[in-house]
Structure formats: structure tokens, C-alpha cells
Amino acid sequence: MTESAPRLADLPGEARAALDAQTIELPSWAFGNSGTRFKVFGTPGTPRDPFEKIADAAQVHAHTGIAPRVSLHIPWDLVDDFDALAAHASEHGVRIGAINSNVFQDDDYRLGSLCNPSAGVRRKAIDHHLRCIEVMQRTGSRDLKIWLADGLNYPGQDDLRARQDRLAEGLAEIYAGLGAEQRLILEYKFFEPAFYATDIPDWGTSLLHCLALGERAKVVLDTGHHAPGTNIEFIVMQLVRAGRLGAFDFNSRFYADDDLMAGAADPFQLFRIMHEIVRVGALDPASGINFMLDECHNIEDKIPGQIRSVLNVQEATAKALLVDREALTKAQAAGDVLAANGVLMDAYNTDVRALLDEWRTDRGLPADPMRTFAESGYLARIAADRVGGTPAGWGA
Ligand code: AOS
Ligand code: ZN
Ligand code: ZN
């Protein structure tokens, strides 16, 4: 079936409202230099501190209108005055989102953090999280996001079960330190940096810990953290169904945790994920799902890399909103396999770019954010202005 591209007016009111409600949170580390273990290619004008990272993130919001929050990483984004950082964000039209804890960089964490066999190291890791909660109080952040690099390289290296018990104990203490409105969101990853066993390798393990902690503990699904071929939309559906999907870390993967731009490697997968979200109205902030990016831009410019990612997520969302739900339900009930699949494919194959250009111009935003940003001269300006100091890297 070929039809001309839909316009904004063709979108049912409910779908339009869902599109209006969508927000995507940007990671501060996407604006710093990053790379593989082979080489980090620096970019002129790279932010030298968290203030400059926020200013760059604000450009993404100014051009797309749907990226009003920035996640921080502690200690990478440690500043003396978090009140000033929050005020700086608001002056730039954005605010601070999730606080990511980093307990994977110190030598002390060679054998893990919350799962470490040493009580002293576990204490240090717990205290770091409690300090992150203090940062959250200052910045008005709701979510404490935990990803642990904990795991084992060799069978027998440590006791698998004891590590889970230590983890449960540490998480419980951290959870107890949260304010009444704050949440703990727990990420999983099937391997890397540990190769034999990871302490939180999958959504089941994350969910079990969250269930033990309480209502305000939810799972973070990073789209790059699964084995090849994993049906990620199934996991999304199951976690949403259980009321425990706390957040996404969107990115693209070809092989492992590639952290490439969301929707670049497999836009169809992103569409299938967003279909599971929109079919239950979970774009609504009341659903409690924080739609975040977790990406690094190693060879491309960072700000337009983030703009492209945000637009890719929005396009996948608009396509998911175009699924003819009634026709789909009818075909499914009739057991008409091909018709049901056809309904999904029709939506996926629809070009929504003009519709979204219109959505932006309606709100006084540029129709073509990539072009407008490129023409703005911002990159040349920061390259000229940000001289001296050390450009922030992935990790600093
Ligand atoms: C690590 O692989 C995870 O995706 C985390 O979300 C991590 O916090 C992020 O990559 C930045 O360190
Ligand atoms: Zn992640
Ligand atoms: Zn990752």
C-alpha cells in the first residue's frame, strides 16, 4: 500500500497529545570526548566542565523541543556548587535529570563495588551512592541510576550467591537513603567489563532486586545491553506490564555495547519498542518511564549526534502512533497473520518527517533541526571560545 505522507492534522487527537507529551533525557557524557580503547578523537570546542556540557545539551532542546533534561554522572560531573549548576541549567531552558553513580573507576573497585568481597570497599561504594543522593537533593533529581561493572572473569573467582546477597544488602541501604519522591533505577548488562559472570546481567536479576527493594525501585533497559537477537520489545512489554520499567537508555548496537545513535543500526527495533510503549499510553510522564539516551559520539560531532538521536526516537514514536490499532486488533482476533503484520508494517513504512517538521514549526521550532543547527555557527563559536582548560572526556 502506498499513500502520501500524513500531515499533522491526520494524527488522531490522542496520538497528537502523546507526541506532545514525549520528552527525552540527554546524557552529559555524550558531549565529552569519547572513544574506543584504541583512540579518542578530540573535537574542537568540547566542553571543559559540566556547565559547558549543559549549555551544549540545551542546544539539542532548543532545536528539537523534546529534550528538556540532562543526566549527570558523579564524579565525572562533580562541581562545588550544585545549586549554581541547577540554576545554570534552568537559565539555559533545561533541568537536571537522573544522577548516575560511578563506582567503576577507582582501583578499589577491581573486584567490584557493592558485590566486592571486602566490606570496606562495599562501604565506600554505598557511601558514594549516599553522596549521589545528596546531589539529587540539590539538583531536584528524581532518579538515582545505578549501573555496576561488578562481575567475575573466572569461574570460582568469587561466590556467585554471596555476591547477590551483598548486592541486596548494599542496595537496601541506598534505597533507604532516598527521599520519598525519589527512585532507584537499576540497569543490567549481559557482559562487559566482566566476561564470565556479571552480577546484574539481565532484566530478571534487576527486577528481583527491585521487587525486594520496594515500589520506587525500577529497571533501566539499555537497548545495547542484550545478546544479539534478543527480542527487546518483549522485555519492554513485560516490565511495563509489571509497572517496573523505570527508564530507557537508548542507543544502537551492531555487536555489543556500541553506544551509537539510537535508531541508527535498527530503526525497526526502535519502532517495535515504541509500539509497546504507545499501545499502553506509557509516553505519559505519569507512567514514570524516563526516556533517556546513553550514547557516545566518537567520530561524529556530538551536538548534532544528539539531535539526530532525539529525532530518530521521535520518528519511531510517531510511526508507532500511526499504527491502526483497531485494524490490528481485528486482524489479531481473526487470526489473520498477514493482515496483522501488514498493519504494523504500514505504520513503520510511513514517512513521518513532514508531519514532524510541521509539529516543530507549530511550536516555533526549526522545521529542520539538523540544518538549522549546522547553520547556526554554534560549533565554530564554541571552538573559538573554549580555549584553555582540559576538554571533558568520557570519564572526566
Ligand atoms: C554502561 O555500560 C552503562 O550503559 C551505563 O548506563 C553507564 O552509566 C553509561 O554508559 C555511562 O557510564
Ligand atoms: Zn546505559
Ligand atoms: Zn552501556
TrEMBL record:
Q: Would the keyword tRNA-binding be found if you checked this record's keyword annotation?
A: no
Q: Which InterPro entries match?
A: L-rhamnose_isomerase, Rhamnose_iso-rel, Xyl_isomerase-like_sf, Xyl_isomerase-like_TIM-brl
Q: Which residues cross the membrane?
A: none
Q: What is this protein called?
A: L-rhamnose isomerase
PANTHER family xrefs: L-RHAMNOSE ISOMERASE
Q: Which organism is it from?
A: Enemella evansiae
Q: Which domain of life is it from?
A: Bacteria
Pfam families (alphabetical): AP_endonuc_2
- Provide the GO biological process annotations: L-lyxose metabolic process; rhamnose catabolic process
What's in the keyword line of the UniProt record?
Answer: Isomerase, Manganese, Metal-binding
According to the entry, every stretch annotated as the Xylose isomerase-like TIM barrel domain falls at: 80-257
**Does the record carry Cell membrane as a key word?**
no
**Could you cite one Gene Ontology molecular function of this protein?**
metal ion binding
